[in-house]
Amino acid sequence: VKMVESKLEPSQTYKRKIIEYQNVSERFQIASRNYQQQYAAIYSNRLKILRRKLMKKIPEKWGNIPLLKMQDLETEENKNKECIITGTVYKDQILKPSILKEISAEHNLPLQPIKKYTSDSDCLVLEDELQRIKLEGNIDLDDFVTGVVAAFCGECIEGGSFKIKEWLAVGPVLPIERPMKSRDLGSICLISGINMSSSFETCVKAQLLLDFLNGLCDDCVSVAKVSRLIVAGDILSMPESVKQFSQTSKVLTRHAKVQGLEYLKLADDLFSQIAMCIDVDVMPGKNDPSNFQLPQQSFHPCLFPEAGQYQSFHLVTNPYEFIASGVRILGSSGQNVTDISKYTDVKNPIDLLEKIVNWGHIAPTCPDTLGCYPFGDSDPLVIQDGVNVYFAGNQPKFDEKLVKVGPSKIKLISLPKFSETGSVVLLDLNSLECRLVTMSVAFK
């Protein structure tokens, strides 16, 4: 099935809204690759960056309570004395995947499939540059995953553990001030999980998306305000043979390669037609032909020869950060949220997005359970600047939430998979209100 350009003509002409735009994702771009570096540097840099932010907040919360290093906890002077320590959390979980379990799988030994790795035996350990200490006391394990940097107030008790009274996260960065609401800032369209394939249902949904963005709908006024389409990953459907390959076989079949090229051509056709009328930013996702590790680099231009001819077609990174009409927006294709959900009992993705903003890090489980590039002198996944909107793609359902940060607020958006729901989200850049638009066809 080939995408067909719509021939319908609207009864009235509407002028497409044009907005100011700036891509600020430079820190996610990897100029040169060096895989001889150790991952320890990432944790060290993360701790340094986020500890500096914690040091500004600790006096406001706990006043003059002394801040100690872990190595000083067991001195006679500091035993059973209330104090504060900082470090990187390690969540010790017996069900967490390990290399030994992977080896047993290769030898066809039975393994119980697990979607969640939480259990009653889970516990937390805090690490700094020199040592580690077990955390006990007033603590909710669902507030943490491995890689979170935090401060803890309590005391060192018998047995060498640290009994917690309170804890403090880095917290969200104060969002930038948004432009005056008196002028129309326009809107953007957010979509994820197109999962393009040659199936009839997929092509119909894609055609409906094209018609909608071209204004062939009942609400042309709202569509005319949409200046940009953000595609948050999982552009292509994964052929069944490839799904089986990822679990067992080590050789891709010729049929799988042909299917993948066919899906890619369909996606190229779709984006080329959308790019005729609107700017398109395409992020890679988990199932797409891009590097596996975060941050995922933009697609190679040769994958989209037709769409690439338009200046309105842009290939961007995952995560992706940009400024539209003065509104700073940060988003991911959802791998970070999906991975975090496996190690907590928090069920709603929007609550995980709030935790991510509070932790001050896009993907704290990198590189423990989620792949990332071994940066030697930085951790670009730290949230450095205040954002007005944070979204994650490829989630089970649409959801939204406003998080208050001082005098401002951050809009959190959970994007559903378009292939399953037929839904896109329109984000009004004036009010930050979301509108869910669902496309479907009733066959008789």
From TrEMBL:
Domain (DNA polymerase delta subunit OB-fold) ranges: 38-167
In terms of CDD domains, this protein maps to: MPP_PolD2_C
Q: Which organism is it from?
A: Argulus foliaceus
**Molecular functions per Gene Ontology:** DNA binding
Residue span(s) of domain DNA polymerase alpha/delta/epsilon subunit B: 188-399
The family database entries (Pfam families) matched by this protein are listed as: DNA_pol_D_N, DNA_pol_E_B
Entry similarity comment: Belongs to the DNA polymerase delta/II small subunit family.
Which Gene Ontology cellular component annotation is one that this UniProt entry carries? Answer: delta DNA polymerase complex
Q: Which GO terms describe its biological process?
A: DNA strand elongation involved in DNA replication
Which domain of life, per UniProt?
Eukaryota
Q: What is its main location?
A: nucleus
Q: Which UniProt keywords apply?
A: DNA replication, Nucleus
Q: What is this protein called?
A: DNA polymerase delta small subunit
Lineage of this protein's species?
Answer: Eukaryota, Metazoa, Ecdysozoa, Arthropoda, Crustacea
Protein's cellular compartments: Nucleus
